[in-house]
Structures are given as C-alpha cells and as structure tokens.
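I hope you will forgive my troubling you with a question about protein structure. The matter concerns a single protein, recorded as an amino acid sequence and a row of backbone structure tokens. Please examine both parts with care and let me know of anything in them that strikes you as inconsistent. Here, with my thanks, is the record as I have it:
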Amino acid sequence: MELGYWLGRGVDAFQEWARTYGAFAAHSATAVDEAACAVAFEELLARLRGSYPFFHPCYAGQMLKPPHPAAVAGYVAAMLVNSNNHALDGGPATSVMEEEVVEQLAEMAGFAVHLGHLTSSGTQANLEALFVARESRPGTGVAVSAEAHYTHARMCHLLGVPVHTVPVDDRGRMDVGGLERLLATGVAGTVVATTGTTALGAVDPLHRIVPLARRYGARVHADAAYGGFFRLLQASLAPETANALRAIAQCDSVAIDPHKHGLQPYGCGAVLFGDPDVARFFRHDSPYTYFTSRRPHLGEISLECSRSGAAAAALWLTLKLLPLTPDGLGAVLAAGRRAAVRWAGLIGASPYLDPYQPPELDIVTYHPAAPGSSPPRLSWIGTASHEVLHRGMNAKEDPVFLSVARVTAGAFTARRADAVVDSDTTHVLRSVLMKPESELYLERLHDRVEHLAKASWPAPPRCGR
C-alpha cells in the first residue's frame, strides 16, 4: 500500500462529504499561522525521532510494532469525522463497523453467541470481564497465576475483589494441581487463565482449567490479549498449546487485543462474553443519549463512555484486506512464530547464548552463556543480560533493541538445575518476534546478539613475559 496516497484519499473524501452540507464560515479562534505551524511541526518530527524503531526488525524488545498501513489510513479517514462509539447518535457508521468486527473476533474465539465490544485497551477489557465476574459470583475472589499480567491484581483491587495467586509449572503455565487445591477451599469464584503471558509467552492449560473450574462452579476468563489471535494457527502449534487455545470457546469471557497481533494502532482492545444476558450488569440510564435508535447502543453494554469510532474503522478496513483466516492475518503471525522457533534453535547451538525456555508462541527468552564450562551464576546472568541490553540499544552502528524479564531463582533453577544460586532473582533476555519481517532478518539479529553476548565475557588473562 502507498500510505501517502490513501491518507490523501481519506482527506479528499472527507472534504467532498463535508461540502454536501453547504458552506459555512470558519471561526478565527482556531486559525493558526502557517509559518508557526511549520516550525512547530518540524519540532514535532524531530522529537519523534527520539523514539525507538518499533517498525524495524532490529527492534526485538517489547510487544510493539507499527500498525498496518490499512489501519492507519482507515483510522485517519474516520478520525476526521471524529465519531464516538458510545452511542449510535455519536457514531452511526462506525458503531455498525464495530459490531461487524466484534462478530468476526467472536467467530475466531469460537463463541456461538456473544456479547462484546471494542475497548480502549486490554486493561479495560480485563476490567470489564472482572466486573462481570464480581457481579456473577459476589463474595468470592479471583484466581490468577503467578505469571498473569499485573492488570488483574490492579483491577481486582479497584473492584474490591480478593486475588488468589496460583503457582506455575516449570514453563510458566498455571499449575492445575495448585488451582484445584485453591478451588476446593471455595474462596475463588473466577479463574483467569492467560493464553500468552507477556513475559514468557506461556499458554495456561485452558483445556484442563475449564472442566476443573466447572466442577467447582467457577467462571473462567481467558486473558488472550496477546495470544488470542494464535487460534488462527492451531494446526501448526504444539498439541498442548493448540488444545488450550481451542478451549477459549468454552470460557465465560475473553479479552483480545487487536493492537497487538491485529495490526492496529493503540488503543484497540476487545472483550467478549459467551452469555449475552450479562448485559444486565451494564444497564444504566442517560438522560440525553440512546434516543436515536431502539437497537442496543455500544455504551449500554460497556463501562466506558466516550470511545473513538476510528479504532473500529481501522480494524474493519484491515480485516477486509487481511481476514481472520490462516492464510489472511494468520500468515502474519505464522512468520513471527517460525522466526521464534528458528531462533530458539540457533540459540541452543550457540556457544555464547543459552535458551531460557522454548517459545510457545513468538516470544523468545534466553541469556548469555557462562564462559567456559563453569555453571551459570545467577548474579552474572543478570548482569550480563543487562549489559547486552544496554550495549545493543546504545550502539552507534547497527543497534539492536531487546528487553529483559526478571525471574526468580526458583524459576531459573527449574529450567537449569546446575545454576549457582547467589541471588534471589536474576534477569534473562526477552525478544518478541511479532513483526513478520523478523523472519527475514533473523540471521542478522542472531549474529548481532551473539556478538554482544560474547562481549559480556570477561577478558582472558594476559600471559606474562
């Protein structure tokens, strides 16, 4: 796509439409000096150059990548209208687009019937799911894994709901035995399972969690903000992972973030409920909205009020071009997944890098290998990982951008029993290969990181004369 053309086409179309309502005088209060605008805009562009290159495959750090040009063009075209999808009178066109894309997300999730809408973030999506959980199971708490996103504890605190942490196994997935022991006490009425933890990309065994929760009368919310789109790739994933993702269809609610793997700009999250009757928990009265249609307005099934209709338009246009199929948007995810698997293999064969754990989706975790044949010391691993991170991102030539994740000594030794525990925690390197270009750039990325890891080794002692 030639982005400049489509942005211009969006502006032209808006102006053509605006002229159909007749000419009107522009008010001088909003006028700006063109010369001053040029100066300010150049300053803006210069300051934006202080960002990290999220668009480039040399950026393999956090869950950040550019939106698809179709999403940008769709967003700008709709942003000029500036619709508000809270009520149909605020966004008559974009509200319908939102209903259409949410229908597609629900089909991808496997929901036969649903109630749902887009949100401004995954945090908001999880908040709404936990709000419904609180109303559905009053007086009970929420069970989350030790690797769950911190969102859940924060949102439960906001809602006044107790949080119960469930331990994880040696791959960062919720321990089902620990969950059963907790559910047997009756303190948890809802289980939050994560399909794609943000630190490790681990997928909780949802196919085992759902029947267990049902046995104890608990609800299940799937935090699929990161991993939900991988349902498009079930045939190429490990059977355990595929089975877990397939079980999203059996959950009471699910959060999915199109601004992660859906190629959308921030913020575009989504929350879906398998029982449309949960709309009763959102009912409220507004004396000046909801009068233009008898159809349910999106604000009537949401905790949010004002929300951009441009996000719906951007996702709608993107899914027109890259549908939610294995050979549509799934092909984008498949490239990152292949890159992650291949890089894990290269790391495993490297004398300078060691894997932390195999990637389940497209997040790779690893750390500098200890020099020689000595076992790794946790303190050295953490220091060396930080050195690789900072040297890579601050390099004047050929920079590379990674991230680190803090792990406990117990988590590390569960994966590497010979490690010397001289610290309660350490840090490992973490790379998110969610850009398909990572597949084409992988060898260069690996060589660069391997070189940085080698540089973290202590210099060999000099021989005396």
